[in-house]
């Protein structure tokens, strides 16, 4: 008595010997379609999601790279103010609402402007203080303007009437608070170095053992990246 | 190769399309052929895969049976005496799921484990589908014989 395996074998043998003629025109159709299909397949080798992921990484890298230093580094910011002779009208234009400096004061520079309170009512800064008694100390936070033509970030902090208690100060524009990171600090120091000012690298290294050995590498990489970006985007 | 594809896809136009897609793959992957087996066997494998993909595209499912395989004790002697044409016609009468598994197991020589991987089903389902396919083939043959007998009378 036969079993199913013998039937399978018999059928397999019979069918494997069978050949069927290819319908007319099939080869010519194949010849026509083959080049375009092969091209299609070769272009699909780099999947679109890889391209999307690469774009995302580049975008993230750029945004991180352009990150500015933390705003609450008072000493650093004060230093910037002292060493930068920025016309008052430029500062006034960039500071948001709570601090309104009339055009009367435009002739003075930031360096020689008196920030001490005075009894003179005609003094524009004093009048501002009088108008908003709850905000005796107004802090103008960073002008983090990212301009393509000038990648330099000018960070300004205005301390008007520093005698008053800091706890009471709640400037409206502190929403612009930036992430304080080691990278931000490094960027700030690098910018300072690019401006030709001395930088205390040792101070930056302190407390950051991870960067103690390679901080110079990081700095060099950043400078190179910035130069490359400038060259690529043709930023002056 | 057309006859291989036609055993899986009964519709001639569909079978031709599948054959063409199969040949496109053969040419595109020609550099991947390492000469391990016969070239014909390599092409045949591509054609079978292409046919399975086509079935999956159109139906995307195989009837899932209980994982219990029953076996027909003995096949009818007549099955051994069928010609190629009759075998093909008989296989073509099977539903897609049964036909696919019968072709893969009985004609191509795949194991149940391989079929389970290929079709994303369990081995038990593959076994039960094969048993049902065999039962249906035998029933079809019996019905055919009865028809002939009726015709002769």
Provide the CATH topology of the largest domain in chain B.
Answer: Arc Repressor Mutant, subunit A
**Low-confidence spans of chain B:** 64-69
Strand line-up in the sheet with most strands of chain A: 1-2
Ends of chain A: how far apart?
A: 93 Å
CATH class of the largest domain in chain B: Mainly Alpha
Number of strands of chain B: 0
Q: How helix-rich are the residues of chain B, as a percent range?
A: 55-70%
How would a crystallographer describe the biggest sheet of chain A? Answer: 2 strands, antiparallel
Q: Into which percentage range does the β-strand content of chain A fall?
A: under 5%
Please give the share of residues in helix of chain A.
Answer: 40-55%
The total count of helices of chain A amounts to: 10
Give the tally of structural domains of chain B. Answer: 2
Averaged pLDDT of chain B: 79
Element pattern of chain A in H and E: HHHHHHEEHHHH
Shape of chain A: elongated
Secondary structure: elements and pairs:
The complex is a heterodimer of chains A (236) and B (153).
Chain A: H1 4-16, H2 26-43, H3 48-65, H4 74-83, H5 88-94, H6 124-131, E1 139-140, E2 158-159, H7 182-194, H8 201-205, H9 209-212, H10 215-233
Antiparallel strand pairs in A: 1-2
Chain B: H1 2-8, H2 12-28, H3 39-58, H4 84-92, H5 96-107, H6 112-119, H7 123-152
Q: Would you give an account of this structure?
A:
- The complex is a heterodimer of chains A (236) and B (153).
- Among the domains of chain A are: 74-176, no CATH class; 182-233, no CATH class.
- In chain A, 49% of the residues lie in helices and 2% in strands.
- Chain A has helices at 4-16, 26-43, 48-65, 74-83, 88-94, 124-131, 182-194, 201-205, 209-212, 215-233; strands at 139-140, 158-159.
- In chain A, strands 1-2 form a two-stranded antiparallel sheet.
- Chain A starts with a helix and ends with a helix.
- The model of chain A is unreliable at 99-141 (pLDDT under 50).
- Chain B is globular and about 60 Å long.
- Chain B is mainly alpha-helical.
- Helices cover 67% and strands 0% of the residues of chain B.
- Chain B has helices at residues 2-8, 12-28, 39-58, 84-92, 96-107, 112-119, 123-152.
- Classes of the chains: A mainly alpha (236), B mainly alpha (153).
């Amino acid at each position: 008595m036969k079993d199913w395996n013998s039937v399978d074998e018999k059928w397999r043998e019979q069918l494997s010997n069978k050949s069927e003629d290819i319908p007319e025109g099939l080869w010519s159709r194949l010849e026509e379609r083959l080049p375009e299909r092969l091209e299609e397949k070769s272009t699909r080798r780099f999947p679109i999601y890889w391209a999307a992921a690469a774009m995302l990484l580049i975008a993230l890298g750029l945004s991180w790279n352009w990150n500015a230093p933390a705003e609450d580094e008072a000493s650093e910011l004060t230093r910037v103010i002292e060493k930068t002779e920025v016309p008052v009208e430029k500062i006034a234009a960039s500071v948001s609402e709570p601090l309104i400096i009339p055009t009367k004061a435009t002739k003075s520079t930031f360096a020689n402007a008196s920030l001490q309170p005075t009894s003179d009512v005609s003094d524009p800064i004093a009048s501002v203080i009088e108008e908003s008694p709850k905000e005796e100390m107004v802090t103008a936070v960073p002008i983090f303007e990212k301009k393509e033509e000038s990648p330099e970030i000018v960070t300004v902090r205005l301390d008007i009437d520093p005698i008053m208690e800091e706890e009471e100060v709640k400037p409206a524009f502190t929403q612009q608070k930036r992430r304080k990171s080691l990278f931000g600090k490094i960027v700030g120091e690098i910018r300072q170095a690019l401006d030709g000012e001395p930088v205390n690298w040792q101070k930056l290294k302190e407390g950051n053992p991870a960067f103690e050995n390679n901080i110079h590498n990081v700095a060099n990489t950043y400078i190179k990246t910035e130069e490359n970006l400038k060259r690529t985007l043709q930023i002056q | 190769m057309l006859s291989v594809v036609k055993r899986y896809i009964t519709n001639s136009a569909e079978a031709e399309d599948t054959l063409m897609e199969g040949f496109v793959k053969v040419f595109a992957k020609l550099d991947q052929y390492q000469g391990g087996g016969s070239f014909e066997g390599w092409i045949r494998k591509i054609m079978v895969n292409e046919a399975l993909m086509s079935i999956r595209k159109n139906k995307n499912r195989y009837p899932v049976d209980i994982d219990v395989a029953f076996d027909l004790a003995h096949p009818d002697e007549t099955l051994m005496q069928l010609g190629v044409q009759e075998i093909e016609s008989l296989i073509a009468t099977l539903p897609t799921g049964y036909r696919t598994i019968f072709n893969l197991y009985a004609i191509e020589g795949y194991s149940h484990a391989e079929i389970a991987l290929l079709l994303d089903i369990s081995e038990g389902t593959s076994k039960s589908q094969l048993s049902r396919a065999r039962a249906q083939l035998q029933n079809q043959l019996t019905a055919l014989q009865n028809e002939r007998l009726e015709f002769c009378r």
